[in-house]
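Bumping my old thread because nobody answered last time. Still need a sequence for this structure:
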């Protein structure tokens, strides 16, 4: 079929408009996409030839869905979004069948999971689960979690002749290792070498980055434990993406608190950095799902490869930009966010591990609780104000981890608190609920009074999911302690927002 020049330019204008909607309404987790490179790959005819059709189609599906509330394009918009998603899935399968696999395909799989998390007419747990399995298998297939298996820390290589690999992206030896106490299965969780090396060899084909060179991370970049104090004041704001690209505020307002991209990298290194960020975005995505499933008891997702720390040898984004020469503090907000996500995943994984003995569980619970405290304290020290731009996402993950630890390992809590477990936990629960009610009030003002809050508005059907998980958590807290009435007040505030959003996003499917 041939299109006239006018039709072509009209179609392109529609594509650009839907993509703008996609970026504008997206959560900060999608910042693994480098926006200038993304648009280049669409407008530059040479690069367009290498663009995975499923990546463009899945972005358009999400962008179209965000315009599908009953206040915008309504049911026809949602139907069109589902059609685009179907095409994206078809294109992805076709590329797989043809052996055309690259980072674009994994990004498309990620966007399909993201779509499935939203409220839409066909939403179901099965669809969500199968999209997640596809993403997990693609990440595993190309060993994206072990891209930095060839990187060694200078300090470790000098001070020890024993292997120090396989620890990147996770805690260093002096910090919390959630699997250290869990017996044979996990005892060497962060020190496994052989699979990491094998994986590095296979991953190089995807990223076109040299795999044979051994890189060294300078001493001053080594991540400290979560208790490391900040120097005097944090420098996160200077490393935020808005520092270099102020226009991101208009294009993707939720991304304004994300970390900048390293400069001066070769094409291969840039692709490698995109792969790293994609993996971390997947950790954020699965941890967010965990925050929901950990309270509903659905632990099907805990068997994903992406959730197993033994599979990691990957630099955090902050480490990558430090490698590129920028001054980065160990406890920068982005690293703390990711530690929160990893911590929740670790708690979830141990919770569902039926083979662990009581003594190991006790030790795990104690250390997890202390690490949650440490990460929270480290976040409290920040003066940059960037946390609000992520909707205090990390705090939510930490509280979910705390709930997981306190409910699943209740009998061990007295060992980690000197002032009485119940009072101590109640105090934490109350401050978490108050903080979340504050966010709910902001959203309510945005929805009801038309006051615009850049990260939150009706174009984000995922917020319904967020509110429902909060309602469940608040009611669980109340069930444990019926004198804890603030939990009921909070759940009412969350119900009000969820119901209001459901008016815009009617659905007969599962939440
Ligand atoms: Zn900061």
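Sorry it took so long. Here it is:
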């Amino acid at each position: 079929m041939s299109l006239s020049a006018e039709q072509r330019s009209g179609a392109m204008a529609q594509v650009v408009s839907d993509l703008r909607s996609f970026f504008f309404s997206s959560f900060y987790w999608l910042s693994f996409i480098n926006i200038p490179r993304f648009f280049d790959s669409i407008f530059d005819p040479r690069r367009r030839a290498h663009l995975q059709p499923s990546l463009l189609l899945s972005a358009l599906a999400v962008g179209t869905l965000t315009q599908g509330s009953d206040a915008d394009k309504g049911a026809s918009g949602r139907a069109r979004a589902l059609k685009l998603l179907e095409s994206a899935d078809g294109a992805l399968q076709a590329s797989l069948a043809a052996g055309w696999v690259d980072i674009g395909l994994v990004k498309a799989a990620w966007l399909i999971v993201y779509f499935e998390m939203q409220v839409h007419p066909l939403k179901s747990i099965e669809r969500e689960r199968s999209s997640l399995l596809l993403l997990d298998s693609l990440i595993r297939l190309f060993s994206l979690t072990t891209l930095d298996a060839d990187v060694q820390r200078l300090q470790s290589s000098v001070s020890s002749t024993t292997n120090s690999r396989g620890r990147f992206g996770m805690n260093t030896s002096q910090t919390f290792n959630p699997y250290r106490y869990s017996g044979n299965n996990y005892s060497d969780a962060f020190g496994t070498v052989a699979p990491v090396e094998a994986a590095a060899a296979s991953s190089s084909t995807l990223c076109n980055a040299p795999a044979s060179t051994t890189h060294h991370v300078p001493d001053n970049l080594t991540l400290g434990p979560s208790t490391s104090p900040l120097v005097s004041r944090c420098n996160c704001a200077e490393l935020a993406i808005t520092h270099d690209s102020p226009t991101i505020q208009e294009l993707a307002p939720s991304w304004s608190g994300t970390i900048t991209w390293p400069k001066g990298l070769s094409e291969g290194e840039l692709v490698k950095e995109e792969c790293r960020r994609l993996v971390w975005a997947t950790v954020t995505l699965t941890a967010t799902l965990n925050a929901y499933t950990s309270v509903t008891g659905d632990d099907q997702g805990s068997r994903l490869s992406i959730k197993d720390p033994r599979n990691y040898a990957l630099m955090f984004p902050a480490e990558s930009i430090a490698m590129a020469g920028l001054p980065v503090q160990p406890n920068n907000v982005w690293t703390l966010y990711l530690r929160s996500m990893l911590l929740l995943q670790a708690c979830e994984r141990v919770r569902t591990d039926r083979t662990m003995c009581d003594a190991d569980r006790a030790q795990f619970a104690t250390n997890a609780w202390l690490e949650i405290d440490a990460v929270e304290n480290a976040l409290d020290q920040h003066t940059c104000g960037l946390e609000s731009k992520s909707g205090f996402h990390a705090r939510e993950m930490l509280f979910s981890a705390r709930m997981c630890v306190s409910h699943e390992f209740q009998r061990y809590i007295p060992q980690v608190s000197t002032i009485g477990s119940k009072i101590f936990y109640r105090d934490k629960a109350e401050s978490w609920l108050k903080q979340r009610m504050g966010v709910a009030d902001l959203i309510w003002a945005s929805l009801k009074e038309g006051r615009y809050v850049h990260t939150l508005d009706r174009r984000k059907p995922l917020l319904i999911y967020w509110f429902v998980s909060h309602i469940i958590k608040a009611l669980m807290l109340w069930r444990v302690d019926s004198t804890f009435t603030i939990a009921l007040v909070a759940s009412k505030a969350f119900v009000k927002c969820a119901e209001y959003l459901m008016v815009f996003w009617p659905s007969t499917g599962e939440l």
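Residues 234, 236, 333, 382, 384, 386 surround zinc ion (CB under 6 Å). Let me know if any region looks off to you.
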